[in-house]
Amino acid sequence: MHDIAALKTALEGLAIEDNPQIVRQKSRDFFWYSPVLKRQLEDVTADIVVSARSEADVIRVLKACYELDIPVTTRGAGTGNYGQAMPLSGGVVLSLAEMNQVLETGRGFVRAEAGAIMYAIDEAVRPTGQELRMHPSTYRTATIGGFIAGGSGGVGSINWGGLRDFGNIISLKVVTMEAEPRVLTLSGEDMHKVSHAYGTNGIITEVTVPLTSAYDWVDVLVGFDDFAGAARYADAIANQDGILTKEIAPIAAPLPHDYFLRHRKFLRSDQSVCALMVAPFAMDAFAAFTRRQKGAEVIYRSDLASAEESKGLPPVYELTWNHTTLRGLRVDPSITYLQVLYPFPDHVQKAVKLAEMFGDEVPGHLEFVRFDGKITCFGLPVVRYTTEERLNEIIRIHEDLGCPIFNPHRYTLEEGGMKQTDAVQLAFKGEADPKGLLNPGKMIAWENPDFDFSAEQTFLFPGLAR
Ligand code: FAD
To answer: Rounded CA gap, 31 and 148, in Å?
Structure first.
């Protein structure tokens, strides 16, 4: 049992929420995308939620929790998918949503508090003609700190790669979980210590990230008779260096028609679609290029659509990445999804082969990205879920074909990632969180150094049984 009464006394004056219903709600993220995580994590809840308004508040919370041995799980907007922001051992959920100021905009960079929403950052920097290089499809709700600690890339990754790539984060201010919390500024090589570490080894309070030129991006849907046509077109336009795009996502029939309800008026149920964001100045080139592609039919362009046609439509980026799955879940709560990497240079061939192999059990959804300088694609295919055994079989078939799965049905860093210990993150946890109180249960290497990743076993965090 955590001594919450003593903690409340120590934190007097801070914004503390202890209403069990609100605490439970703020202890959840989008873990329910996965039927496996839904079963495992349904009852997870913190004891209290504390909202920090400044770095000094964060330091105060960490110092008090360290003294009382109370776990702390950081929360941005709680849009993560794998129970990342869920407090498996209870304790405190530390919300950074109120630390949301944009602090400085310069040529090529912005500095902001970690709780700033990405859409709001772009609004703030837009007068300078700039915007963030990349954002998740949760742009309008997710925080920049949550994206860096839990996300990987998204809209814009076709040009800039992912968050893991050097240069896509400039520097981070991080608070450690010690008797006397330290405030560190990390940059360059050190960034890997905390980026995509789920807040297990430090709390990011401030970020500096690069900016690029801003455009009034044109939303486009191009229709195809089959998924293979959409995938080949996506690859071809992604490789057109002169046509500036920000998003390229082929999605197999019948998903666009069945899930994109507001766009349905433009779609046939047998039509696969490539969803794109294209720079306004490139629209003539885009149209000329697309006209040459066999079977491509431009079915929607936001720059040519009438106000009546565009009324009520969500932006194209909210049809892509994990918004495709979200829209699907609203129509059919029994589906789930996978995250796949189709390695260059056989990415299209492999993606099409797998889509054809599984047919309507695993309809294809690809996201084209630049990966180590090459154009390739990730997949977030929908899975018409039957059993956990079948889901694991589908995963195995992908991996046997050389397509790694970043398993969205696991809550640990390693199982959702490269399935190996990240020695840099582990070592930093030893320094920055010696008692292991930050987001417990998410880093297997810390909880069980002997865990055998090759044995295909699932890690079960003992603290979850609480
Ligand atoms: P949270 O969910 O609150 O936190 C994410 C993780 O980071 C948690 O482990 C949390 O403890 C930790 N954390 C949060 N803030 C901090 C901090 N300041 N310091 C240390 N640790 C912290 N992800 C992508 O990468 N690309 C996408 O395109 C994408 N699309 C999505 C679409 C949908 C519909 C959904 C539901 C999810 C999507 N995601 C995507 C996952 C998620 O939205 C992103 O990772 C998002 O950026 C998380 O931001 P957040 O503020 O909600 O973070």
So the answer is: 18
